[in-house]
Design goal:
Factor Xa Inhibitor, 16% strand, alpha+beta
Length: 64
């Protein structure tokens, strides 16, 4: 049986940390930020971590 290929789209968007969590950058923060309030802009800054269930699926897709 052939090996499973790495999902290249996901590989560009997420990173697996040393502890095994999956980090990603949050969406809706690329442009048009002046119309969003300060609280929302703060919440969108930085990175987020996937839930355990989604992270598990992502790691299978990445073969990590």
């Amino acid at each position: 049986m052939p090996k499973q290929k790495t999902h290249k789209g996901l590989k560009k968007r997420v990173k697996v940390t040393a502890s095994g969590k999956v980090k990603f950058s949050k969406s809706f923060s690329g442009h048009l930020m002046s119309s969003k309030n300060a609280k929302r802009r703060r919440r969108l800054s930085g990175t987020g971590t996937m839930t355990k269930a989604l992270g598990k699926t992502a790691k299978v897709m990445l073969q990590a």
